[in-house]
Design brief:
Bound molecules: adenosine monophosphate
Order of helices and strands: HHHEHEHEHEHEHEH
Structural class: alpha/beta
Shape: globular
Oligomer: single chain
Number of helices: 9
Distance between the termini: 50 Å
Helix content: 40-55%
């Protein structure tokens, strides 16, 4: 078995300008080579661009936004209580929990680990509000529960820098356009937007343009 310091010389993830703690987590997860979407999206996000990607489940899309968001976040970790810097909207509670776990996995070796809160239906809203109010860096949510929480006016998204729509085409049927309007109202105008969708029907193009 190769030692970590020998193996890192072989890692094509090296070319993607990720810091040592993140590369260490990649190594621990057995990620050697970036997938096609990771190769394209990671540099775009690191250079502070928006991204619109056609991505299927299984393409490695989660890491394509989680890794650069963690990288940029860790370069400028705020002093004191955590403020929400990244919001990821997903269509299902399963995907919410999976993305939250991806942030935790790749944030493991950072000098400060990000506090990640999942907002999903079927769980006590009071507990989720409490977690947010303790201070968190990353929120992963389904839109319905996020709107319930926004309506309580107890979440501050004014410091947000990254807004991700994951598997956006799966959200189209759920009255999502109206919900998106409410959510966008709560976000700062200046932010990075990342949109992942397996298909781009006209309705999705309209969402992307917003
Ligand atoms: P996703 O499309 O993000 O749901 O990822 C699908 C699966 O591929 C997940 O189990 C990931 O952990 C895995 N995966 C993503 N990127 C890589 C990579 N570069 N190398 C190995 N496995 C990966």
């Amino acid at each position: 078995m190769l030692l970590w310091h020998q193996r890192k010389l072989q890692m094509p993830f090296l070319s993607l300008n990720l810091s040592e703690p993140i590369k260490k987590a990649l190594d621990k997860s057995g990620f050697i080579k970036p997938t096609a979407i990771q190769e394209k999206v990671i540099p775009l996000v690191l250079s502070k661009h928006d991204a619109l990607a056609r991505a299927q489940t299984g393409s490695g899309k989660s890491a394509s936004f989680v890794l650069p968001i963690l990288e940029l976040w860790s370069q400028n970790i705020p002093e004191g209580k955590s403020k929400i810097k990244a919001l990821v909207l997903t269509p299902t509670r399963e995907l919410t929990l999976q993305v939250a776990q991806t942030f935790k996995t790749f944030g493991e070796f950072l000098p400060k680990q990000p506090k990640v809160v999942s907002l999903i239906g079927g769980e006590r809203i009071g507990d989720q509000l409490y977690d947010i109010q303790q201070g968190c860096d990353v929120v992963i949510a389904t839109s319905g529960r996020l709107i319930d929480i926004l309506n309580k006016k107890q979440v501050n998204l004014s410091k947000l820098e990254f807004f991700v729509l994951d598997e956006a085409d799966k959200m189209l049927d759920l009255g999502f356009a109206e919900e998106l309007d409410i959510i966008l109202e709560a976000l700062p105008k200046k932010r990075q937007n990342l949109l992942f969708s397996a298909t781009y029907p006209p309705k999705m193009q309209e969402i992307a343009s917003r």
